Amino acid sequence: MEVSRRRLFGYSGVTLAAGAAAGAGLVSVAQATEGNGPVDEEAVPFYGAHQAGIATPVQDRLHFAAFDVVTDDRRRLIRMLKEWTAAAAAFTGGHPYGSAAGGLGESPPDDTGEALGLPPARLTLTIGFGPTLFEKDGKDRFGLKAKRPAALIDLPHFPGDNLDPARSGGDICVQACADDPQIAVHAIRNLARIGFGVVAVRWSQLGFGKTSSTTPDKQTPRNMFGFKDGTRNIAGSEGKALNDDVWASGSDGPSWMAGGSYVVARRIRMHIETWDRTSLQEQQDTFGRTKGEGNAYGAKREHDPVPLDKLPADSHVRLAHPDSNGGLRILRRGYSFTDGTDGLGRLDAGLFFIAYQRDPRKQFVPLQNRLAASDHMNEYVQHVGSGIWACPPGVRKGGYWGDGLFG
Amino acid sequence: MRPVHLLAAASAALVSVSALSACGKDDKAGAKGGAGAIEVTATDSSCDLGTKSTSAGAVTFKVTNKGSQVNELEILAPDGKIVSERENIGPGTGAEVTVQLSAGTYKVMCSAGMTGKGPSQALTVTGQGKATDPRLDQAVAAYRTYVADQVADTLDKATKFAAAVKAGDVEQAKALYAPSRVGWESIEPVAESFGDIDPKVDLREADLKPGDKWTGWHRIEKALWKTGSIKDEGPYADQLVKDLQTLKAKVGTASITATSMANGAKELLDEVATGKVTGEEETFSHTDLVDFKANVDGAQKVYELLKPVVQERNADLAATLDDEFAKVQKLLTKYQKGDGYVAYDTVGAKDRKDLSNEVNALGEPLSKLAGVVAR
Known about the structure:
- The structure holds two protein chains of two kinds.
- Chain A has helices at about 5-10, 20, 75-90, 130-135, 180-195, 240-245, 270-275, 280-285, 315-320, 365-375, 405; strands at about 60-70, 125-130, 170-180, 200-210, 260-270, 330, 335-340, 345-355, 380-390.
- Chain A is of the alpha+beta class.
- Chain A has one domain (about 45-405).
- In chain A, strands 1, 2, 3, 4, 5, 6, 7, 8 and 9 form a nine-stranded antiparallel sheet that branches.
- Chain A is globular and about 65 Å long.
- Chain B is an alpha+beta fold.
- Chain B folds into two domains: about 5-15 and about 135-375, Up-down Bundle (A middle domain of Talin 1); about 30-125, Sandwich (Immunoglobulin-like), CATH 2.60.40.
- Chain B is built from twelve helices and eleven strands.
- Chain B has helices at about 5-25, 135-165, 170-185, 190, 195-200, 215-225, 235-250, 260-275, 290-315, 315-335, 350-365, 370-375; strands spanning about 40, 45-50, 55, 55-65, 70-75, 80-90, 95-100, 105-110, 120-125, 335, 340.
- Chain B has a five-stranded mixed sheet with strand order 3-9-8-5-6, with no helix packed on it.
- In chain B, helix 3 (about 170-185) packs parallel to helix 9 (about 290-315).
- Chain B is elongated and about 80 Å long.
- In chain B, about 50% of the residues are buried.
- At the A-B interface, loops of A face strand 6, strand 7, helix 10, helix 11 and helix 12 of B.
């Protein structure tokens, strides 16, 4: 039998003997279980007007993958996107895609199986299409060039950038977020497997310790510098702010992006060792807020209004604050990362910055230009990877990821 | 070589299949072949099977959900246990489930809303199994000829290679080294099924266990390319030839079925993915691309022999495999140099990634071949 994650969630006593049974074919893995078990409170709906994983509550873990399309065959690409959609709907619902432990003994299982028995863990899968999907080296690859939104720009070089091409760009991105890293990794692994021959992973990034929250009542998380960051992030409940600053509207550009959003991801390496040797005073000056409570200079509590003139002119909070940028806001959804150590014995760690917005030309680009030029924090960070993708609106039942673009 | 002997391991699991096929040759029910899937029509309140009985063996259910709720197909054994199931069959969609069934009375259940309950219908399974498709028997016979030819080729070229080594002719031995391995690499999974030969002829230095005596191609490879001194290698060259002669004498007895052929093809691509793309196989000579090509050719031979059956049973898979084999062969031509290939240490990271992408693109559908010929 195929053991669904949904079922096992309710019947934790069920043991798996899947591998042993698979070859025999006839042997059942477990007794049939009756009923649906408990309702999944941990499943985030996959279908809807907007893609999940943007304004929905931020989960604890990330696996973000950028793919190159390796076929010229538009039909195969569409077929894969349909299969991805079906798989994503299954994974986010806590189900395997196809057979994980049943099926023919002579065939590899459809689903890799490491998520069997685990709850959905609020898994969300969010897809985006990069500039190179529309046009690469002057070539209109899939007849999409005319549909490229003007807002899906090629990001300019920002002062201080030291981008590794192998960690940048990608024709398609998939952001997998879940409260359990195994769930997020399982999703990316299986999408990559389904995609072989059509797409190939260009790079991927694991993240932990969410560094932003879209639920302001929860405590603001801390980044690898030990500071709270993103206090004024757009919350999932701020309908107006989402419409103004996150969701693209039909009048902004191509209709296939109405209800979608533009994501910018930056792999920001932190110079951990030098930061750790920095005095508390300078650390706090760098941010313009205290390390403990997280209150801005001149304010008592973290969420109190920020008296900007009390903060050092080159402090991060002052420069990034909406009030210093004509009210400009972005929805941040970044994660900390630590990919072990580099060859020099330094922690390869930092922030995998993810920001959703309505128009990067008016939001991320001016903001980053400002920060790259003046932010005191630049002494301790370096941007080493970068990407931008257009995330289409949510999928309706019967539709597939990108149907508005390819249809 | 890899330390895993898939064909040998698989043969245990395959015993039942070959035993069944032997006595099922004249079983008329077998004429249904793989195309004879049992149609199941599910609605929210019914579960209709296109037949009440079928013969034992691999049975495919093709379910269509004409209801308004998400449905689930369950095949229940005579004792009530679930043999197989397929969940999340959306309204207006369908799914295929293939399962090995022996004689008995089963229940096929459609569970609208996936509650684990629902209407069911009985299915009587009779007989001992299905006849194999005669085309698969032909494919096995043709593959045996291919294997014998490749072994003969590798023995012939290894004999010349050994002569050059014994003559102390380093340049000549270097030139003959990679070609002598081509036949071996193209049928390696079959050769590996004789567990003792593979470690003698194809062990890599990194795979040596304490106390192992290192013999075979890679030992001489190291002497040729690393130390440049082959004066002590004569006995090892003789031993290589002797071991390959043993392989030639034994290879006719290898247990080969259509399924093991298909698994072998998949395993050849695994070899490429884990040993050649990384440049680990030919650490000293960097002739990995010659092995790469031989592995792919060996896999392609298997596929071509099984293709008539694959086309009939899974035309999409056949089309994908045609496409991906053509792509990988085309990609390899980029690295051709003279009669062989460029040294792999001259292939940069980006090109290696392109090769790796293509190996994954071919390896993934190739892994589905065994399931298609087994049913």
